[in-house]
Design a protein that fits this description.
It is a single chain. This protein is mainly alpha-helical. 58% of the residues lie in helices and 0% in strands. α6 runs antiparallel to α8. The protein is elongated, with a radius of gyration of 18 Å. The site of heme C has 18 residues, from α4, α5 and α6. The site of heme C (HEC) has 18 residues, from α4, α5 and α6.
């Protein structure tokens, strides 16, 4: 009985490897309109690129283990949900009111250490933000809030 369950489990793991989710890759490595409009310096851009763009832009960097299911499925879910809330490729096209609200929300998420997602940090350790990184990012986004 135990042996059968084990074989069943192993077979399932093998079969699901063939079900690969669609990739979030446009080839555009950086969200150019974001850079042109909001002029982040290199440090800000690198932090966002390391910690946020995988789920909040049109281009994800996929490490090898995202080819392993169900890790790839989880990642695809996070990207779908993440892009619905915030897409750095589209920020520049939003109205001032909506941009301001995104900037506030970004600052809050960073301040409260809700982003990047914990499950992501677990495998992408270099995406963690230290206190100085957080401060830098929050100052950047606060400075972009337009009060007119
Ligand atoms: C592993 C994928 C992933 C990464 C990396 C990630 N996010 Fe998210 N983000 C999500 C998902 C999924 C949601 C929507 C569900 C939620 O709020 O948990 C979200 C939601 C958000 C929201 C909207 C929250 C709200 O409720 O208004 C903001 C703002 C945000 N993320 C900012 C960031 C920033 C800034 C970074 C980088 C420091 C980042 N995220 C990194 C997946 C991610």
């Amino acid at each position: 009985m135990v042996k059968r369950i084990l074989i069943g489990f192993v077979l399932t793991i093998i079969v699901i490897q063939f079900i690969q989710p669609a990739r979030n890759s446009t080839g555009q490595v950086v969200p150019q309109s974001f850079i042109d409009t909001f002029l982040p310096n290199d440090t800000v851009l690198n932090l966002l690129s390391n910690s946020c763009f995988d789920c909040h832009s049109n281009n994800t960097k996929y490490p090898w283990y995202t080819n392993v299911q169900p890790i790839g499925w989880l990642m695809a879910n996070h990207i779908n949900d993440g892009k619905k809330e915030l897409n750095f490729n589209e920020l520049a096209a939003l109205s001032t009111r909506r941009r301001n609200s995104k900037f506030k929300s970004i600052s809050q998420q960073i301040e409260q250490a809700k982003m990047p997602l914990k499950s992501y940090l677990f495998i992408h350790r270099n995406a963690a933000l230290n206190e100085a990184d957080k401060k830098l990012l929050i100052n950047f986004f606060q400075s972009k809030i337009n009060n007119n």
